[in-house]
From TrEMBL:
Molecular function GO terms recorded: acyltransferase activity, transferring groups other than amino-acyl groups; tRNA (guanine(37)-N1)-methyltransferase activity
Residues of the full protein shown: 1 to 243 of 387
GO cellular component: cytosol
Source taxonomy: Bacteria, Bacillati, Actinomycetota, Actinomycetes, Propionibacteriales
Keywords: Cytoplasm, Methyltransferase, S-adenosyl-L-methionine, Transferase, tRNA processing
Function: Specifically methylates guanosine-37 in various tRNAs.
Protein known as: tRNA (guanine-N(1)-)-methyltransferase
Domain of life, source organism: Bacteria
Chief subcellular location: cytoplasm
Subcellular localization: Cytoplasm
EC number per UniProt: 2.1.1.228
Single GO biological process annotation from the record: tRNA N1-guanine methylation
Keyword Flavoprotein: no
Length: 243
């Protein structure tokens, strides 16, 4: 997978050189390039923003640097059609499902907005050269899209085939089955007066699976009632009926 990140704060993306995405790059699974949007400005002050037409507070990112950046990065017509991700608080929520979709793309371009946003024509133009996704990290406001691009990249890259040493650990984690993960324990069996639930020491794999399932459903119902679909409740009912 090739990822290009367009930002006026390239230093913000430095962590991508380390840790998980760094491992993917070392393995040759990921070609990641961070670009300073200001390299595509031509005035003395390297201006990327201006006041909004129609008035109002704040500044809007001007279209020209974005257009020049897309021209430079996407000019080769032979490559895969890119997916262009605009990180914005007015985007669709980022979820594990979206991460899985993006992990299937050959080419991602992150456009990190700042200020009050990017001139809408940049998005309209981008839709003519690639697939446009406007994505938000959640219902709160960050100063810019860089942290979102970082988070999305990490969630996507760890799903690339060959990245995980043990792909089974992917299947079991929170959100993959629509439920939050059950609590986990390791040695010692007793620690500071807290004991590991005895079922986990029983060696009875069916009972352990049933306990974990119940814990996951209970946790999800308490913390994220919005995730508890009827299908989950039905699955759970079936599990109980066959026991
Ligand atoms: Cl993607 N950008 C900004 N600026 N704020 C956010 C966000 C993105 N997601 C949540 N808040």
């Amino acid at each position: 997978m090739r990822i290009d990140v367009l930002t006026i704060f390239p230093d913000y993306l430095a962590p991508l050189e380390l840790s998980l995405p760094g491992k993917a790059r070392a393995k040759g699974l990921l070609d990641l390039r961070v670009h300073d949007l200001r390299q595509w400005t031509h005035d003395r002050h390297r201006t990327v923003d201006d006041t909004p037409y129609g008035g109002g507070a704040g500044m809007v990112m001007r279209p020209e640097p974005w257009g020049a950046a897309f021209d430079a990065l996407l000019e080769a017509p032979e490559g895969a059609r890119p997916t262009i991700v605009f990180t914005t608080p007015s985007g669709a929520p980022f979820t594990q499902e979206v991460a899985r979709e993006l992990a299937g793309r050959e080419r991602l371009v992150f456009a990190c907005g700042r200020y009050e946003g990017i001139d809408q024509r940049v998005l309209d133009h981008a839709a003519s050269v690639g697939e446009v996704r406007e994505i938000s990290l959640g219902d709160y406001v960050l100063n810019g899209g860089e942290v979102a691009a970082l988070a999305i990249t990490e969630a996507v890259v760890r799903l690339l085939p060959g990245f995980m040493g043990n792909p089974e650990s992917l299947a079991e984690e929170s959100h993959e089955d629509g439920l939050l993960e059950y609590p986990v324990y390791t040695k010692p069996a007793a620690w500071r007066g807290h004991e590991v639930p005895p079922v986990l020491l029983s060696g009875d794999h069916a009972s352990i699976a049933a306990w974990r399932r119940e814990q996951a459903v209970r946790r999800t119902a308490e913390r994220r009632p919005d995730l508890v679909h009827a299908s989950v409740l039905l699955d759970d009912l079936e599990v109980r009926l066959v026991q």
